[in-house]
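Bug report

Summary: structure tokens for trypsin differ between web form and batch submission.
Environment: batch mode, default settings.
Steps: 1) Submit the sequence below via batch. 2) Compare with the web form result.

Sequence submitted:
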Amino acid sequence: IFGGRKSKPGTHPWQASVQRRLRNTTDAFKHYCGGIVLDSCWVLTAAHCIHKMFDMQVVLGGVDLEKHEAADQTVAVEKYFVHENYTDIDEVQYNDIALLKLKAASENGLCARETRFVKAACLPPNPLPDGMECAISGFGVTETDEEGSNQLLETKVLLINQNRCKAPNVFGELLDGNMLCAGRMQGGIDACQGDSGGPLICKQNGTHYIYGVVSWGDGCGKKNRPGVYARVTQFLDWIKEKMRSM
Ligand code: 4AZ
């Protein structure tokens, strides 16, 4: 996250850390993408995070990747679904959405437990207005740390008009209707590498909606290069169908 600040425990309870096993280890995992809690057994993330991946785990409830916190829940991934039309063309991510089905614990049949620190965000029922202020969060690269942040960072971004983001001096025709732009045209405030798969959350009438999934960009925090997100309202049928299927 560029232009972020440390988030307080429990303020982004839908944030997940999607982690992969380090080569030739049994229990060493490293954060590589964000994710978003949809319910006790499902996490939404970006397709480019898990394309041809395996050996994943998801950590929920934490705001510090270095510490084992009481609120942490580590859950194995039982299965994943990558959108059938996902493609990467010259680093532009199309239909960049995927679902992780978490493994239920043998003791109680639960995947994640809902707590003050682990909570689902809602799927958005309708499009939201341009200029609306929303929030992003993640453990990704910052302006001062190319390795990413061990602390969960957050920042506020604005939803950017689609035609403005399709302007020739911004992303032009690279942007399709399954994507949306958010951030600041002036730069400085953005998602970055390692935030991918994580939440763009917009609050309306007291409810937190998952409006976007961090997907791609041209660098981070640059002028006229806002962050690009998978447009969740375009994928509601796909998400519901996959969740129904298991
Ligand atoms: C990435 O590499 C990435 N500035 C994610 C988000 C953005 C850029 C790059 C948006 O996963």
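Above is the batch result. After comparison, the two runs are identical; trailing whitespace caused the diff. The first helix runs from residue 47 to 50. The radius of gyration is 17 Å.
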